[in-house]
Every structure is written in C-alpha cells, then in structure tokens.
Design brief:
CATH architecture: 3-Layer(aba) Sandwich
Strand order of the largest sheet: 2-1-3-4
CATH topology: Rossmann fold
Shape: globular
Distance between the termini: 16 Å
Strand content: 5-15%
Order of helices and strands: EHEHHEHEH
Largest sheet: 4 strands, parallel
Number of strands: 4
Radius of gyration: 15 Å
Length: about 160
C-alpha cells in the first residue's frame, strides 16, 4: 500500500475571505513552517463581496497580538481551478462547505472538509473583540492538530 503523506496545497474557505479563512491560512502557514513542513496555503471566499480587500482590521489586530501577520493577504473568490489545484479544501462552516460541494466536480469532493472536522468555525464578523479571540483559539488548536498529523505522515 502506498504511503499517504501530508497535502502539498491547502485552501481555507469562508464566505468573504476577510476573517476566518485568512486567519486560518496564516496560522497554518506559521505552524507548518515551524514543524518543517513544506505545504502551500491559500484562502478564498465563496462570495465576491471583498475581492482584493485586506483582511478585516479586527482580524489583523488580534492576529498580530499573537504573532501572525495578515497584512499581505488579499481576499479572492474560489475559482473552478481550485478544485483541481488544491489537495485539501477546508471550509469554515456547513454553509460554505455546501456551496463548495455545489461548485466542485463530483470526482473532487474527497478534497472537501470542514476545517474543524465536525463543527463550524464561528463567524466573528458581526461580533465583538472576544469573538475574534475565540476564532484564533479554535484556529490555533486545530492548526496544531493538523500540522501534527501531517508531520506524522512524513515519518
């Protein structure tokens, strides 16, 4: 049986690509680099509300306090080519996962999953400061789980 290694390219997806998915993209990038993994990360939104925009200033601020830099990231919408170019596409919640499944060719559905596995990553956009901190807590915890599993897959 062939050994299955870590993904080479991972796409994080939320609705507008300005809060959850860029946060997850950067946290995973940092954690994977710290673990010595060579994985490419990107993020996108299912909607086109914020194409070209920087992440939400609240996401940037809270991430910076934890040592993550979101300032170079820019929102984009999911492209049809993403379903072929990324090994793993992780949605923030069921709404976005359903939209990805709708757009994704059936033979690529195995690449789609929820970022947190079986629960939604809450959207902090209409929330308070604590909501952005909660998202970071959840993202960091899951990033460590994923990176650890991917590192074991390289052994």
């Amino acid at each position: 049986m062939a050994k299955v290694g870590p993904p080479r390219r991972v796409l994080l997806v939320c609705m507008g690509n300005i809060c959850r998915s860029p946060t997850a993209e950067e946290v995973l990038r940092v954690k994977a680099r710290q673990a010595g993994l060579r994985i490419e990360f990107d993020s996108a939104g299912t909607e086109n509300y914020h194409i070209g925009d920087a992440p939400d200033p609240r996401s940037v601020r809270h991430a910076r306090h934890r040592g993550y830099d979101l300032t170079t990231l820019r929102a984009r919408q999911v492209h049809a080519s993403d379903f072929h170019e990324f090994d793993l596409i992780l949605a923030a919640d069921e709404l976005n996962l359903r939209e990805l499944r709708r757009r994704c060719p059936q033979e690529q559905h195995h690449r789609l999953a929820l970022f947190l596995g079986d629960v939604a990553l809450p959207d902090p956009y209409y929330g308070e400061s604590d909501d952005f901190e909660k998202v970071l807590d959840l993202v960091e915890k899951q990033a460590l789980r994923l990176v650890s599993a991917w590192a074991r897959a390289t052994e």
